[in-house]
Amino acid sequence: MSGRDLVDLEDLDEGEIREILRMASGHDPPRATRTLDGKILGLAFFEPSTRTKASFTSAMLRLGGSVVDMGEPSTTSLAKGEGFSDTLRILSGYCDALVIRHKLDGAARYASELLDIPVVNAGDGSRAHPTQALLDLYTIGKIKGRLEGLSVGVLGDLKYGRAANSFILAISRFSPKVLYLISPPLLRPRREVLEALRRRTDFRIVENPRDVIGELDILYVTRIQRERFPDPEEYERVKNSYVVDLELLKEAREDLRILHPLPRVGEIRNEVDGTPFAAYFEQARNGVPVRMAVLEWVLGHGGA
What we know:
- With 304 residues, this protein is of the alpha/beta class.
- It has helices spanning 14-25, 51-62, 84-92, 107-114, 130-144, 162-171, 191-198, 232-238, 246-249, 280-285, 287-298; strands spanning 40-45, 66-69, 97-102, 119-124, 151-155, 178-182, 203-206, 218-221, 257-259.
């Protein structure tokens, strides 16, 4: 098989992660190139997306390639009863690499094992979102000048949030000073995530962000993900657990920076947007150079 899959950041070693981040820096700010001239990227999004889908499209076009978008599932042969695997096989015949998002854990892994073209996971279920984690790491390195030795807090849905899970596992590989996991008891990380952290780094489980806000270099905020809750009553109990506002940030260090994979649904007040703390819109913009690097990496151009 030519090229490489990117299904989970846990599949990559630290050197490979750093190589992709290095490649991303060469595309920042993004400029038109011809490195993927003649290549076609397929987009198979079985869940809604704004930033991820648009930034992959922008990235491929800036690299000189083209994009084939499956479109909304309701407008495809899936609506006629076509099976998931048949849809993937058909799409793979039209493109050189496939980006997939799906509500089910393991869907991207299944696609990578089924197809003979590179597969990039754009988020599967509540488990993994590797390109989001890469752009999170890239953003931290850009604004802090390093990844290592930082005090990092991750706030919100740490159980169902795939972006949070991917970020927690990713940053734990870069020797954080302390990693604070801030959530209601119902939304603490799953057992397999905690077991991985115990092998890697010093972490602490916290319920009240006020207890640690003054110690943080980075605060990574996530929304409570209503669509992933198996029990609607469970969601209702935790939906408004945290709000990051100017009152909370009175206790923060001046150099604290706040990240969020977006979309937000009230967990960061708009009043924070105009402060130096807010780095989440820059974070979103970094999706283009990082995904340019990812596409070059999976298709075997410009990487090690």
